[in-house]
Task: inverse folding
């Protein structure tokens, strides 16, 4: 093989592996979307007739709306807490130097290195013991706490990347132009960190929204959408779950794309070409 | 000198155990253009940051426009800064960048807009740039926007922290000329930090040469060039010749000296410091390259002559530079002659070079 | 990057760290300690009894049943690590060097798939791998006999699910490592006469080691806790440790047992993370010397 054909071979291998991996990732997702429009009760190919009846069937399930409501509530609260705590933590990670910083880093990063089920179980044990002493049982509140512990490290890492690429001279420039502390934050710091914060909001919401393990461990009798699906498919498969998947994907995809557009537009602006 | 707008006296700045400024004093007159020069780490940027209010001096006093600046934050000082990497807000348009200080000062919108446009005009920037983001501008345009932002609120002093260090030579030259013009037209005091003494000579009314946290010399460009206080200042600007000599007889401003390599009738030269000199003291004789010339038989004999061999020469454009190896002198002697297509001496030729008494200056070691 | 030194009296530092640290201590560190304490208690008549003894640990190490499940978990996790890294390396390398302007779109697609509800994705795999599923339907059109691939509810399916859910992690860590490699280093190797393969093994691979170790360790740790995949895709026929833990809470109501099993997994996982960190630091110590900028 000549050097030239060998290098083409490598290009094809690498690009091909990316394409194959994407196909692998999307096989189950596309399958779900396709089956959500089936007209049959059976989830097998070929699909003889098409319909949207299963979306109606899903909405008609009495336990669907409570799960939807719980998921929305949990994801919204977790998103806010995770992003605020994560942003504050990211600034402390990157811009500050202080005693016990390594401990702080370990403490705030460790949940990311935990299998979610174990994270959930460890918290469940604690809440159960606490619950016996204080007389409460697990439910929405414990799910929210679990999600905050699980999601905040992700938010922290995402914002930290933004803080890392941040040029503090801009804050000096603002102060030099006559800006007070609050002006600096509102006019410079926040807008420049915003792409990272926005990504963190999106990530946190979706991670919490799609989370199964922590909700499953800490939910008690409360169901969120993932645990609703889990208990449903344990009983028997039905086209309402593909329908739910389709309903899930559309807003999630829009959110992910919007977050990326925000980040990229800012990245284009924020990279000043070296003056030459 | 007009009344001083900046009076810094005995400023000391410590970073932990490292002393960045050793009791530095400097005055800048109203409307004056002062350049702070020195090698990196000499404390020039630290001094600028103390004036701007980004650093607190460890001790010493700083007055701007007559008021003590102790505890006055950067935002409240009548000075504005152009940052080394410009620090234009990437998320704000040119209009919002320039108008930012006015917005913070709650200037009325119509008035603010008028002044932003006036700055744009002053900086020769096209009004169509108002809606652009900094990343959409060229390096030179960014520079002008940064200047406009710093000048829009009519500060008493403009601080410039090596703003042109990243530009290519041609653009730098044109911006330097513009900066000089701007200074002449505005009457604002400028303080420029630069490591480029040539730039400082071209722009500043007075130059402050610093080294290791100390001020070595403050003076006009001519004083710095022709009457440097020591060999460091002398060699900081471009090529120079320093011949080691010993003092033969010292009294007053002019002293007699002797050197084994310089042939000379009556070796007397003006001297830098007024400290008393004793016979036998060591000193350096400063001769700028452009003061050197070839000595040919039959022509008028100069004050002093040296014999050597041409090691190499370069055409520098307007001048030709010769490097001449002189026996007994450790480095080649540098000589700049006006450019001419007929090179007066070839490499390897034995030559006699000389200089006049008016072009020499003695620096005590 | 300007770093501000802060003392613990600075309200800004307190505001930025204390609420987050408190939450992590209260709901992560304390629960971990509690888990450790619970392993010394027992369960009597479906209730927790504060007995302070080693019954549970004797149980856990004494029964071959637990050993079998633990070894299976380790085996599956290792297999998952190997497969994930083998898949992730070319993908991350292609993503870092070959995709140009497409890179952003591919990144969004991967991110989106990552953020999608795991239960739904797992259910999607059932529809794909089922005997009458999408895969066999496709194969039958290529001339294979109907139901040619019969892997649903086997460990193979479990492994596919685990790799599917975890391969993103090494792609991410490897991408970070590979994108940071100065292209000139590779050019210098070609220039010195090295072939492409030689260059890869002499330059690219060694420089991507931090991403490789980090990615492998992450996959290993996270796969120790795989639950949905063996339960749903594996059909529960070859339970992994997570299944035992789940049972000790749901059906057996034996918290100390669940705590002990959890702790075993945590210790194994932490050891593998420490190993990966040690390998990375040993390499980097001499090369760069800046260990603090990992984050």
Result:
């Amino acid at each position: 093989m000549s050097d030239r054909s060998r290098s083409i071979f490598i290009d094809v291998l690498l690009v091909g592996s990316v394409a194959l991996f994407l196909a692998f990732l999307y096989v189950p997702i596309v399958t779900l979307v396709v089956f959500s429009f089936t007209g049959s009760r059976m989830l097998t190919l070929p699909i003889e007739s098409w319909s949207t009846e299963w979306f109606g069937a899903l909405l008609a399930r009495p336990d669907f709306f409570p799960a939807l409501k719980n998921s929305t509530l949990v994801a919204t609260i977790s998103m806010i807490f995770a992003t605020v705590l994560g942003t504050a933590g990211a600034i402390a990670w990157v811009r500050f130097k202080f005693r016990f910083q390594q401990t702080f880093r370990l403490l705030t990063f460790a949940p990311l290195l935990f299998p979610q089920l174990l994270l959930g179980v460890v918290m469940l044990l604690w809440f159960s013991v606490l619950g016996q002493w204080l007389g409460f049982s697990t439910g929405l509140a414990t799910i929210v706490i679990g999600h905050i512990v699980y999601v905040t490290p992700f938010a922290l890492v995402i914002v930290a990347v933004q803080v890392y690429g941040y040029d503090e001279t801009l804050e000096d420039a603002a102060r030099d132009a006559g800006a007070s502390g609050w002006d600096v934050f509102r006019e410079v710091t926040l807008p420049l960190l915003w792409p990272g914060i926005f990504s963190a909001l999106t990530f946190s919401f979706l991670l919490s929204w799609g989370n199964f393990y922590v909700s499953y461990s800490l939910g008690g009798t409360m169901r969120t959408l993932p645990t609703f699906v889990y208990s449903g498919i344990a009983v028997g498969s039905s086209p309402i779950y593909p329908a739910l998947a389709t309903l899930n994907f559309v807003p999630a995809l829009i959110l992910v794309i919007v977050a990326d557009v925000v980040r990229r537009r800012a990245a284009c602006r924020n990279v000043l070409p070296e003056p030459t | 000198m007009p009344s001083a707008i900046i009076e810094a006296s005995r400023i000391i700045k410590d970073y932990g155990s490292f002393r960045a400024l050793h009791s530095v004093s400097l005055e800048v007159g109203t409307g004056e253009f002062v350049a702070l020069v020195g090698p990196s780490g000499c404390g020039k940027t630290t001094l600028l940051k103390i004036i701007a209010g980004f650093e607190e001096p460890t001790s010493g006093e700083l007055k701007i426009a007559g008021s003590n600046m102790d505890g006055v934050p950067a935002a409240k000082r009548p000075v504005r800064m152009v940052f080394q990497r410009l620090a234009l807000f990437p998320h704000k348009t040119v209009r919002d960048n320039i108008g930012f200080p006015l917005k913070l000062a709650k200037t009325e919108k119509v008035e603010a807009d008028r002044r932003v446009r006036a700055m744009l005009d002053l900086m020769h920037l096209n009004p169509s740039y108002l809606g652009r983001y900094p990343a959409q501008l060229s390096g030179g345009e960014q520079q002008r926007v940064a200047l406009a932002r710093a000048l829009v609120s009519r500060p008493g002093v403009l601080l410039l922290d090596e703003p042109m260090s990243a530009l290519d030579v041609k653009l730098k030259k044109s911006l330097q000329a513009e900066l000089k013009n701007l200074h002449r037209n505005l009457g604002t005091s400028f303080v420029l930090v630069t490591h480029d003494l040539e730039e400082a000579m071209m722009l500043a009314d007075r130059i402050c040469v610093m080294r290791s946290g100390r001020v070595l010399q403050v003076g006009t460009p001519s004083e710095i060039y022709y009457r440097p206080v020591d060999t460091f200042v002398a060699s900081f600007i471009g090529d120079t010749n320093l011949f080691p000599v010993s003092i033969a007889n010292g009294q007053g401003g002019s002293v007699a000296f002797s050197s084994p390599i310089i042939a000379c009738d009556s070796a007397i030269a003006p001297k830098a410091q007024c400290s008393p000199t004793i016979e036998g003291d060591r000193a350096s004789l400063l001769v700028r390259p452009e003061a050197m010339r070839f000595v040919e038989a039959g022509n008028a004999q100069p004050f002093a002559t040296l014999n050597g061999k041409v090691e190499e020469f370069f055409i520098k454009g307007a001048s030709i530079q010769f490097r001449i190896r002189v026996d007994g002198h450790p480095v080649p002697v540098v000589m700049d002659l006006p450019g001419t297509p007929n090179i007066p001496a070839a490499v390897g030729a034995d030559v006699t070079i000389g200089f006049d008494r008016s072009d020499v200056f003695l620096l005590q070691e | 990057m300007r770093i501000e030194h802060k003392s613990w009296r600075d309200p800004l530092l307190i505001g930025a760290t204390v609420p987050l640290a408190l939450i992590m201590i209260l709901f992560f560190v304390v629960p971990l300690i509690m888990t450790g304490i619970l392993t010394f208690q027992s369960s009597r008549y479906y209730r927790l009894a504060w007995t302070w003894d080693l019954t549970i640990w004797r149980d856990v190490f004494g029964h071959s049943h637990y050993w079998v499940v633990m070894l299976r978990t380790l085996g599956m996790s290792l297999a998952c690590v190997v497969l994930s890294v083998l898949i992730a390396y070319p993908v991350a390398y292609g993503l870092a060097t070959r995709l140009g302007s497409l890179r952003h779109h591919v990144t969004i697609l991967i991110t989106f798939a990552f953020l999608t509800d795991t239960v739904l994705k797992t259910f999607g795999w059932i529809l794909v791998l089922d005997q009458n599923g999408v895969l066999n339907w496709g194969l039958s059109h290529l001339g294979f006999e109907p139901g040619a691939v019969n892997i649903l509810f086997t460990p193979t399916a479990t492994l596919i699910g685990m790799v599917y859910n975890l391969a993103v992690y090494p792609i991410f860590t490897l991408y970070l490592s590979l994108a940071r490699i100065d292209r000139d280093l590779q050019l210098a190797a070609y220039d010195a006469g090295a072939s492409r393969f030689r260059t890869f093994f002499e330059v690219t691979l060694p420089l991507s080691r931090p991403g490789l170790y980090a990615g492998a360790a992450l996959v290993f740790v996270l796969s120790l806790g795989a639950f949905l995949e063996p339960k749903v895709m594996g059909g529960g026929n070859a339970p992994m440790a997570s299944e035992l833990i789940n049972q000790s809470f749901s059906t057996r109501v034996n918290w100390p047992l669940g705590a002990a099993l959890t702790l075993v997994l945590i210790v194994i996982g932490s050891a593998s993370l420490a190993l990966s960190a040690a390998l990375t630091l040993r390499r980097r110590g001499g090369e760069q010397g800046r260990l603090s900028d990992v984050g």
